[in-house]
Amino acid sequence: MTFQFLGMPERAAAMRAVFAAEAPEIAFHDRDDDIDPADVRYLATWTPPADMARRYSSLELLFSTGAGVDQFDLALIPSQVALVRLVERNLIAGMVEYASGAVLALHRDFIAYSAAQKRGEWRERPVLAATQRRVGVLGAGELGRAVLAALRPYDFQLAAWSRSPRSIDGVTHYYGSDGLDAMLGATDILVCLLPLTPDTHGILCHSLFEKLPQGASLLNVGRGRHLVEHDLLSAIEAGRISQAILDVVDPEPLSPGHPFWTNPNILVTPHIASVTEPVGAARAIIANIRRHRDGEAPDGLVRREAGY
After folding, report:
1. Which residue, 23, 41, 64, 167, could crosslink 286 as a Cys pair with Cβ 3.0–4.6 Å?
2. Domain D-isomer specific 2-hydroxyacid dehydrogenase NAD-binding: where (predicted)?
3. pLDDT number for residue 1
4. What is the pTM (predicted TM-score) of this model?
5. In this predicted structure, what is the pLDDT of residue 41?
6. How far is CA 103 from the centre of its chain?
7. Range of the domain at 14
8. Residues 6+ apart with CB under 8 A from 146
9. Is there a single domain that holds both residue 61 and residue 206?
10. pLDDT at 188
11. Tell me: the pLDDT tens digits for 258-271?
12. Residues 146, 254: one domain?
C-alpha cells in the first residue's frame, strides 16, 4: 500500500514519523520522493495536481488535508476515487475553542470595548444575560454540533439550521428555506459553519442580513466566499449588523487597504480558527486507510451529490 502526501516538508516529516511508528505496512512518500505515481493508492493534498486522474491511475482514496473540500473540482476526480475530508479531534477542538471564544466576545461586546479603548473612552454598555441571548448556527455537521455542545453550559438560547431535519439536544433545529427565515428572525449572534457549495456561495448577503434583528452580530468561520463583503459593510453602516468576527475572507490574505482592516466593528483573524495538526492528521488518515482496506466507509467520506 503506497500513500503520498503533497504538502509542506515540515508537515511531511511529522506525518512520516507517525506512519513509520504506527503503520509501517503503509509506504509513506512525500512530493519529493522519486516514486511511480501509478503505484499510489492513497493521496493527501489541499489541492490535487491538474493531471491527477492521468498521473495517479491506481488511486483509490483522495484525502483533503482540511475539514473542507470546496477547493476540489469534483468533476475532475474519477468516479472510482473516494474523496475524504479530514475529521480529526484537534481540528474540531480548535474550531470549538475559536468559535466559543468569538461568540462570548460578541455576546459581551469586546469589539465595541476595543474600539472605545482606542478612543480613550470609559463607558459601560448594557449587559444581557446569556439566557436572553439567541445564538444561531448555520450548519449542523460535526463542527456545528461540537460548537453548539460547547456553548450549552452558558445557557444561551441555541438554534441550528441545516438542509435536512436533525435532532440536537438542547438546540432548536430548523431546516429548509422556511426554517432558515424563521431562525434568522430569532438570532442575535449568527455563526456560519456551512460547507461551501453552489447553494451556499454568497449566502451571507443583503437579503439574509435583512432577516436578522436590528443590531445582530456575525461570526464567519466557514469560507470567505460565503460572504458578500460589500453587503456586510452596508449592513454595518445601516446598523443591521452591529459587529462581525471574520476568520475567513476571499481572497486570502486580505488585501492592503481593504476596508475590513480599519472598520472598528469588524475583527479579522488570518484563517486560524482550526488548523490541521500533522500528527493528528496522519493518525486520522491511517485509520481511514485501514477502514477502506477492511471494506468499511472512511470517516468523512464526501457525498458527491451534496458536495461535502
Report:
1. 23
2. 102-273
3. 87
4. 0.93
5. 97
6. 15
7. 2-88+276-293
8. 92, 95, 96
9. no
10. 98
11. 999 999 999 999 99
12. yes
Q: How many domains does the chain have?
A: 2
Kindly tell me the sign of the dihedral angle through the C-alpha atoms of 142, 143, 148, 150: positive
Burial class from Cβ neighbours inside 10 Å (0-12, 13-18, 19+) for residue 255 reads: exposed
pLDDT (0 to 100) of residue 308? 87
Query: Which residues, listed in sequence order, are joined to residue 158 by a DSSP beta bridge?
Result: 135
Let me know whether 259 and 131 are in one domain: yes
Catalytic-residue membership of 223? yes
Q: What per-residue confidence (pLDDT) applies to 48? A: 87
* Strand pairing category for 61-64 and 189-192: unpaired
| Catalytic entry in 206, 271, 291, 304 | 271
What was the pLDDT predicted at 34? 87
Q: State yes or no: pLDDT of 21 exceeds 90.
A: yes
Residue 161 belongs to a domain: yes
Among the listed residues 11, 223, 226, 292, the single catalytic one is 223
Output the furthest CA–CA distance in the chain (Å, rounded): 66
CATH number where 54 lies: 3.40.50.720
Determine the average pLDDT of the residues in 153-158: 98
User: 234, 252, 268: which is the final residue of a domain?
Assistant: 268
What is the C-alpha to C-alpha distance for residues 296 and 290, in angstroms, rounded to an integer? 8
